[in-house]
Design goal:
The chain is α+β, with helices and mostly antiparallel strands. It has 2 domains: 2-61, no CATH class; 107-271, Thrombin, subunit H. The protein has 5 helices and 12 strands. The protein has a 6-stranded antiparallel beta barrel with strand order 1-2-5-4-3-12. Strands 6-7-8-11-10-9 form a 6-stranded antiparallel beta barrel. Strand 3 and strand 4 form a beta hairpin. It is elongated and about 100 Å long.
Length: 272
């Protein structure tokens, strides 16, 4: 205690000086409008920046949680869309309420590892057999088609992406109602092609390409890309069609795996 009193005595003139300076500054800011305005503007600016930094940090740590929440919300929306429901009546009616009308279910996943620069590219997902994943299931993102499940372990799975040789996903050029097979030549990760389209059908540039749903792997209507260019193939009666993929695969993180609830029945009737 004596040491504290001695310390205060040594600094008493400096402490009195600081107190007088603080008092003078407070009176100056309180009674002069320009300094007062400048003070509060500066304080607000600093506080605003601090809140913005805190918000950015909070968003960063909550990013994964928010992404999973958005995936679940997207799944709920897709389940209620008429594109992903089975029409039981044969007429063009929209059936939503019955659980038996639901044809597709979706399992959200995150990409752990990916390649996009090889001739055959694969994505590794953080979901596997214990999550309901099976070989042959379709995979897509919020922007477009991604690929097909190739290998599965208990906790992980590998996707054969559209950036592989002989991916063979059936697609539809929606503007003209013509179907073909999706291909990739191994050159540009942003450009694919469609084979099997007759060149006696005009295919406008910019036409939208979607999944056809004929194989039962994907529902009809998932985005694939847009027509970029068409060229005639010498000696053949078909187009060579380039498409710009709707998904930038190098920046892909979150995906959905498609589960067709009627797939066994679909395959059985086709085999018969």
């Amino acid at each position: 205690m004596q040491n504290l009193i001695a310390f205060i005595k040594r600094l008493r003139y400096f402490i009195v000086f600081l107190a007088l300076q603080f008092f003078a500054l407070s009176m100056y800011v309180s009674y002069m409008s320009a300094p007062k305005s400048s003070y509060f503007t500066t304080a607000s600016f600093i506080a605003g920046n601090l809140f913005e930094i805190r918000h950015a940090i909070s968003q960063h740590f909550n990013l994964e949680k928010n992404n999973h929440a958005l995936q679940k919300e997207n799944i709920a929306l897709r389940k209620s869309s008429s594109l992903f429901l089975y029409n039981k009546t044969g007429a063009e009616t929209k059936v939503i309420d019955s659980v038996y009308a639901q044809q597709y279910d979706y399992i959200p996943g995150t990409i752990l590892n990916a390649t996009t620069t090889k001739r055959n590219n694969f994505f590794t997902l953080d979901i596997g057999a214990i999550h309901g994943i099976k070989r042959g299931m379709g995979v897509f993102s919020s922007n477009g088609v991604v690929g097909i499940i190739h290998n599965v372990s208990d906790h992980f799975s590998v996707v054969k992406s559209v950036l592989t040789k002989n991916i063979n996903i059936d697609v539809l050029i929606s503007e003209v109602g013509v179907s073909g097979m999706l291909k990739w030549d191994g050159v540009n990760a942003n450009i694919g092609s469609i084979s099997g389209v007759s060149n006696d059908i005009a295919v406008p540039k910019g036409s939208k390409v979607i999944t056809r749903g004929g194989s039962g792997i994907f529902p009809r209507g998932i985005n694939v890309g847009t027509i970029k260019n068409t060229e005639t193939i010498e000696g053949e009666a078909s187009w060579h069609i380039d498409i710009a993929f709707s998904q930038k695969y190098a920046a892909l993180e979150n995906v959905y795996v498609v589960k067709n609830l009627f797939l066994d029945e679909f395959k059985q009737i086709q085999n018969q």
